[in-house]
Structure formats: C-alpha cells, structure tokens
Queue: 4 jobs
Job 1
Amino acid sequence: MIAWREKARAFAIHFLVTLAFSASAAALVFLIWFPDPFARMLGGTRLFEILVMCDLGLGPLSSFIVYNSKKSRRALVFDYTIIGIVQLGAFLYGLHSVASIRPAYIVCVGDRIEVVSAAEIDDADLAEAADDYRRRPAWGPRLVGIREPQDPKEREKAMFAALAGKDYAVLPKYYAPYEQTLPEIKARSKPVSELEKHHPEAKELIASAAAQLRIPLEKLTWLPVKHRDGFWTVLLDRDTERPVDWLPVDPY
C-alpha cells in the first residue's frame, strides 16, 4: 500500500528546502547581477523563472517518487544522494546560464550606451586589457568609457575588428574610466524634449522618472542604449552626465 501522506510530507520538506536555495539565488541574481532594470532588459527574469520552476519540480517530485519509510537508511541515503547530485548539477548549470547573460559592462561608445553581457566578451580579449578590466565584474555591471586608439595601425586594427563583429564595446583593451568620456557625453546627449517629440509614448515615462528622481525635465538628457535584444533609452543627469534611469523605449 502506498503511504501517500509520507510521500506528501517528503515532497513538502524537499520543496521548502529547494525554495530556500532558490530565494538565495534570487537575491544574487536580482540584487547583484541584474540590478533593476537589467533583468527586464536582458531577459534575466524569464531565464531565472525557468530555472526555478524546473528545480522546484525536479527535486521535490523525485522525493515524492522515491521516498518510502520502509526502505533502509542506506537505501534512502543513496537515493537522496543521487537526487541531490542531479538537482544541484541542474541548478548550477541553470545559474551559470543566467550568469552568462548578466550585464558585465555598461559602455559609453560615442553617441550611445551599450550594455555588454558577460558572454559577449571573449577571454582572449580580456587578457589584452589593462589590469582594471581583465575580469568580468562579479558583483554587478561596471560603467566605463572608451579610449579610442591614437596610433593609425591600432585604429586600422580596431576597424577590421568592428567589421568582424567586435566593436569597441566588447574589447576591454579600449575601456577607460567613465569620467574621461564626460565631455563627449555632454556634447552628444540630447534634451528629453527631442525624445518626446519623436516618441510621444515616452512622455509619461519621462515625467514619472523626473518626479521620482526630483530632477527638473530641463536637467535631463538622453542617449540610445544598445543591448543584445534591441534598444532602450537612458536618461542622464545634465549636471553629472551619469545614468539616472532607463526607459523601455526604442529611440530609433
């Protein structure tokens, strides 16, 4: 006779343990790797939801199937060791997949901002970078600028790299402190009135952002944001030229 109550209890305990691990992972993913709004921008929320749903189903359901109080202690330990290895392996693989699309660098490239995910940067290109940029940031995206090469040969090399699909944004050897690009940003950023003129749907979003930030509209500027799935818009504080809000508006 099947002891349904015992199986349900085993399922519930395993479910709660898995839920606790998932909550800890969620804190890592949404508070550190994908601070708002990058989870929405890059699809981190959707991928993490799939990971959690699979994990919450895989482990507890396995417990429901294999648990039997009549089994020996040795048999139960063996069963749960196998379940734990499989579940942990699947969880770590899923978490690695989420980590690979996390925003690593937010790069100011001339007239736009590019959000570069960890997977878009090759290890070989990291090795050529200055010491400050030889690693993918592990604790949230890092805001940087671009130092264009002055040497003609280096410029030509960068041009051919861009033709091959690798522009400055994914080549850390050209990264520089964001502060060094402030004059260029100030020259290229545009008033929000221009964005509202061509994209009326952005007007309400801009007004809401200005109210929350307590920054007058005339002190807000914007630049396009390129990411792996399309385009958004970033609002900048005219006084500091640093990002203050991100809007799901394709300015093109």
Job 2
Amino acid sequence: MIDPGLRGRVALVTGANQGIGAAAARALAAEGAHVFLTYLRVDRAGHGDPALPRAYDEVRARSAAAVVEAICQAGGRADAWEADLADPAVVPELFNRAEAAFGPVEILVNNASFWHGDTFVPDRAERFGWRLMPVSAETCDRHFAVNSRAPALLIAEFARRHAARGAQWGRIVSLTTGGAPGFPGEVSYGASKNAVESYTMAAAAELGPLGVTANVLSPPPTDTGWISAQVAAELAQATPPYRIAKPEEVAEAIVFLASHQARCINGQRIVMH
C-alpha cells in the first residue's frame, strides 16, 4: 500500500453531508487526515422537482452528523458546521472553526455547489424532465455566489493563512463539470463552474511557489441520487456513452490529488471518464 502522506493533515471539505463531499471526507479520514466538513441542508419537501428522485431531496436535507459519526467510529477525526457559503462572512469563520478543532487547514476541497437548470431559450420548459427557469439576475447570482465566489474566497483565505504561518505544503482541489465551457439547459451552473476553474488555475500559478498545488477535477456523471431512469437512459445513448461513477470513485481521485504522490501535479484539469 502506498502511503499518501495525509496522516495528521487537516482537510476542509465543502458540501460534505452527502454525495461526493461525504465520500471525500470519509476517504481522506481513512488515510489519517483530520476532516472538517461544511454543508447546507436543502429541504425542498413538497417543493422539489418531481423529475428528480425523491431520495435525492431526502439526502440533501440531512445534516453531516452521520458522516462525522461514521468517521469517528472508524477511528478518524471529524467535525462539521452548517453554513451557507453564499454569505461571504462565513468563510473566515469556517477556517476559525476548523483551526479550533484540528489546527491550520492544509487541504481545501471545493465541492459544494448550487444547481438549478436555466436557459436562454424562451418557453423551454424542461431538460431530462427537469423544470427549467429563464436566465435571470437571480439564477446568475445564486449560482455564482456558491459555485464561484465562495471557492474564490475560500482559496484567498486559505492562501492568507498559509502565507502568514510560513507553511510550505498545501493542496487545493476544486470540483467542476464537463459542461463548464458551455452548458445548454444548465447555463448559469456551467458558467459558474467555468469561473471556479479559472480561479483554481490562477491559484496554481500564484501559490505554487508557496508549496501549494491547485487542481481541477471534473468527474463523470456521478450517482449522488439525482440520476433518474430517464437520465441514465439518455446518458447511455450518448456517443460515446457516459459512464456513471460512484461518489467513492471520485473521492479516490480527490485523495490522490491531495497526496504526496501528486506533489508535481499542479494547474491541471483532470477529466474522469
């Protein structure tokens, strides 16, 4: 077994109450990292999109308590705080809480995201059966607040504290999407993910001399509960067909990018298939 060198490292994982974030938290903890999770419950009971599986709304409405408990029962260390990353004041407090629990944050995983399908096409009602909204100031602002501005502020806070303590080791992994350059039917989501790619690549160039690597990871469609039978059928008919990943498979790639073995990988956009 190759030692990834993560024992005792402190990781901050956003959007970690379910899906990829929860899997990443568990995987990092399994390698000995102390993991601080942040999340925001989305309770859409009675207001969700009927095209999305009911189970998806259920898991997104859960706290991160079960993830923290599972990590601790396995002998790891984890703590969590629920906060809305759309609020800029949350960012420094998030680092304060992580430091109080475990010490300075050395690994930042930008996983949290906001999503709602929107479109430029007038009167277009749906994609994959999902309800679509027209592009508006509201759809733009909400996507960019969580998916772009929050990661930028998290990276900036990470860098400030890293430099202030004279640290020489750090990892930033930002999750993105294959539709970032242009995402019909999910216009604001794709654009906001393209922005976080740019922020992360800039961080790779600017923070590299400080011993920090920053990379973008683009998973394939990942079954975090949102993939309905209709979506799965359409993905299978694509050319080439999409492979649907499990959150644990994406988490393995996150652990690798945080590892000692990835020390020479910086400023890369890694696309999983």
Job 3
Amino acid sequence: MKADAVEAFGALGNETRLAILLALWESYDPYAGDNAVHFSELRERTGVSDSGRFNYHLRKLDGVFVRDTDDGYVLRPTGLHLVQTIIAGSGMKKTTIPPTDVGAVCLRCDSPTRISFRDGWLYYACTECEGFVGGGENEPEGILFSQAFPPAGVANRTPEEVFETAVFRMLQEFRAKIGGVCPRCSGVVDSRFEICEQHDTAPGAVCTNCHRQYDVAVRWACAVCKYSGRAPPSVAAIVHPAVTNFYRDHGVDIGYTVTGSADSHKVLTLMRNHDQELTATDPPRVRVAMRAGGDELRLTFDDHMNVVGSDA
C-alpha cells in the first residue's frame, strides 16, 4: 500500500498535472453521459503549448487518476474524488464562524449554546458548563460535540443551517461506521470500546482522567485511510434500526434530510436522554436504554455496536 501511495503522490508532483485534473473537473457534468475531453482541447484548457511536454504529464496521470478512452480523457473516480476533496477543503479559504448562538440550549444545563468554525473544525459548545468533552489546546470550553467539517460546507449557509448540517453529517457518519464502512474512503472500519477504569465526574463536569462525561466510548478507526472517530454508545445508538423504529412507533422521526421533519436539537436531546451501562468487560458489553410514550427499550451492544441482546 505504501508503494502505491508514493506512486500516486508522485503523479501529482507537478503543476501541469494538477491543471489537467482541474480542467477535466471543470468540464465534468454529473448528468452528462459522456465527459471525455479530447487531447487537443485538454491541452488548450491547461495552457500548455508544448504538445510533447503535455503528453508526458498526461501519461503520468493515466491509469491512476485519468482514463484514456476512445472519445478522449476522463477522470477516474480516484481523480474526481481527489479534486472534490481539494475543492471542499479550499473552496472557502480562511473561512471562520465566530462563536454564534444557534437558538438551542445545552443538553446538560439548559444554558445557551454556540457553534464556531475554524481550521476545518466545527465546535458546538455550551456557554456555561463543561459540556460532554473536555476542550483541548486552542479548543473552546464546554464542547458538546465537534467534527472535522469541510470549509465548503459553510458556503451559502447561515450558522443555524451549518448547525443542522453538522448534526445530519454526524448521523450519517454513525450509520456508515456502525456498518463497518469508512465515511471517508469506504475502507474497512474496526471498532472497540474505550473504558475509563477510574471514571470520576462531578455535577456539570467531565472526568479528569478521560476528559469525557461517559465512562465508555466506542472508537472507530479505518484500516485504509486512518480515519477515526469516537462517541458514547448511547449516542451512536440513535441511528440503529431498532432504535429508529422504536421512536418511529412513538411518532418521533429521527430524520434523513437536513430540512426534514426531524429537529436537530430534538435528536440531540434524545441522545442525551439515553442511559448507558457497562454490563460486562470480557467481552465488553454496554446496555443502552431509551424511553418514549411511557415505553422503554433496552439494547445490549458489543464493541462493534452490534445488538447482542434486547428487552422492552
């Protein structure tokens, strides 16, 4: 894998090659049946007058990021994804959102909350308590959740819409990770429980040992791209089919769209009201309880977030 990665990075080590990828992306139409660009047109788009030099650089991309067809050159999925990633990450250069009230209250203390965005990270935090996760260096205090967030996701959205989008992305990533699929590269995701053996929290505070409110967190890691994520099992459980069906039976829609019937704060409140308990350590098991309409559902999860027991 390392040799393949080195070869792929080497193919990008030239301004002309990057210009070729960008030119193919600019002519790409997701709805078109044919996105091939002829050699001469592609060379003209990149502004390279020397045909031989242009062909040399094009061949370096062919087979990795570009495919040569009978009708011209097209982006391979890897090439398209690469340009999309660059656009998502740099499309809104130096974009920030200062701490901004989004009209929701803290799930721990009912104080006002704010979102902020800087350096590719979005933070949702309480203005009064310590939140669910202790803030690190250069991070706000009182973090309720945080996530890597593409700068392009901030474009043409109000802070309230960014907040809704962030919650939506969190739910979608939970679904992918619980399914064993990396939300970044579609590689194989493994998971395990992280258990704080000396968990100690005071009211309104996080543990001084693990810097979390909960004593157990599920940690995901991709074996291919090294993407990682972490959440309490009681939070991640919100997207499990058994849980969404339970809420749906009681008239509560978790929602599958940003502008759908689900309210982001309502979904976060449901997560917060889930109870979790470490019931076994070898192998580790966590029971999550949720309530709606006077009924209760209790599910026991293993460290892959598979349900291994249930009772109502």
Job 4
Amino acid sequence: MLKDLPYARQWIEEEDVRAVVDILRSPWLTQGPAVERFEAALAEWCGGKWAVAVSSGTAALHLACVALGLGPGQRLVTSALSFVASANCALYCGASPDLTDVDPATGNMTADTLERALPGRSPAVVVPVHFGGRPVDMEAIARVARGAAIVEDACHAMGAEYLSARGWSRVGACEHSAATVFSFHPVKPMTTGEGGAILTQDEALAERLRSLRSHGIVRDAVKQAEVGGWFYEMIRLGYNYRMTDMQAALGIIQLRRLGEGISRRRRLAILYGQQLNGLESVVLPPPEDNVRSAWHLYPIRIRSRTASRRTVYEHLRKQGIFVQVHYIPIHLQPYYQERLGFRRGGFPRAEAFYEEELSLPLFATMTDEDVLRVSEAVREILA
C-alpha cells in the first residue's frame, strides 16, 4: 500500500524499461519503425483502420481539426466540462469555439445538450468528450450533428467500450465519427510519457494527418525515382508533432497490458461503489448502461451540509490521499470570458458538476486496501 496516493499514476514494469533501452541502443531514436509498429497495434486494438501517432493529445486534437479543414469563420462545438484543449483546438485553427452543457449525472455531452447549442448555422466540427472514460452516446450525437465532422475527444477513454449493432465495440473504432483522439499522458490508462494518437477509418484523412504532423512534407516514391532519393515536397503548412521511437516502444508494451489494467480499474471502481454506497452526502457515478468506462477517473460529488468539497479535498490531501478536481468549466477561464465573451451561468449543469466533483485515486496498480483506505477517509470526514 502506497503512503501517498496520487489521483492517477503510470504503470511501469521492467519490460517497459527494456523496450525503451532497446531503442536507445538502436539506430533510431526519433520517428522510425517503432512508431509504425505502435500505430498498427493501436489500430488493431481499437478496431480502427488507421492510427497516426503524435506528440500529445492536444496535438491530436489540433491536427484532426486542421486535417478536416476547420478554419476562420467556422465554429467548433465541444463540452463546457473538459480541459481547455478540447476547445483551444478551434482557436489554433482561427475558428470560433462554442460549448454545450452536460448530463448532470455523467458530465458528458448529450444529443439534447448538443441540439440546444446548435441554433442558427451549423458547426463545422463537433468534439464530444468522453468524460472520465465513460463513452458519450455517439450514435445519438451523430443524429443531431447536422453533418458536422465529429472528432471524439477520447483522451480519458482508451480501453472504453460501448454496445452497438455489432455488439461491444471499443472507443476508437470511429463508427460514428470522422476521427477519435487519444492522450497517452502518464495519468491516462496507458502512457508513452507524453504522446497521443488519432484513429480514423478514412485513409485519405490519415495521409493528411501524417503529412501535417511532419511539417506538411510528403515523400513521393515516383518523384524520388525521377529526381533522387533525397527529394521531398512541402505541400501544406504542417507542424512538428511527431512521436519518437522511444515513446512508441513504450506504447507497444503498454498496449499489451492495457486490457489487464482496464479490468483492474473496473474492479476497483466496483469496490469504491460498494464502500461508499449509502453515504448520503456522496453522489456516486451512475450505473453503466450500454457502455463500459475506461475509468480514467472515479468522480464523486460532494453534497454535504457539514463539510464542503474543499474541506473534504484538504482533509484527504493531509492524509496523503491526493484527490483532484475535474474540471473548471472552460467558459469560466479568464481568456474565454475576456476574449470570447463567455459568462458564468451560461452552462449551469457543467458549473454545478464542477462545484461538487472530486476525483478519488484510481489507477491500475492500486490495491483493494488502498480503496478501503480512501473510502474510510471519505466516510470519516463526512460522518
């Protein structure tokens, strides 16, 4: 049992270390054959056709929007309850970000909240956020998106599943979206240090993404045969958003253990529910209906007459239980208020969720005893 419990933590074994060391001893350190192997394994694991590995989840969001043609005069709609990257990707493209309110139980965008955010002109891109790892109802979102390109922000949801006409599918299969983006930051269900990826079923989109992550450059075999093997062309304005082979080697090993890690997270989430059930001042995550969360977060909400959320937060942290809060709604950030005109009260459900939310520690290497310790501490302060 760990003395100090972070809200999330990477799972690193000796095989991860060996995989990275092997790359350090190889001819390739930056983008090379390990990236291609990681992309192939990632696409197969998720049930998608193409995976494009990049330097972060934020880079993945940005590149997806650029590749889909988002630009000035257009609008992107995402959830108010998310990290700022979900909306900033619109600003990077010169487009206008807009927001939706959320389901008060799950913190997710719904078809209803999206529809209410779509008066007048339709958005060019919709970015549903799978908050905490629980999948959004993407089929319902697709029905009301008015032809907008849909980019799933699955930075919390690597390993999550949903029930479809084909049975259980994994987030990343892109059944109802143009692309799905993942983050592999150390707090996520699997890590490459920093890193991210874009999954898609569209080969042409994947080719644009590969070019965009590397300065907009392409190397055409026919032209190289004519001119010389050194020949390349910059055909669009791109970026340096490449993943390294060191990161990809780590990702390959992490992906092999992901199923085990997700299963462990799900067992711990069940245990939390059992330990905290019946505590009147705690609202637990709702039952899963046709979805299986990746449980990146275990978000509870504090509704106590005697102890505020901040009191609980500080009490737990003093005991070495480093809970966190997710998220300050995007429209409450000074930049979004001062530059873009958003105001408090615009998305009341997101604000209410934030005012109560507390993320308890949850990661694959936690023990049952860790969960019991956290649950006992929560009960102690709220009793």
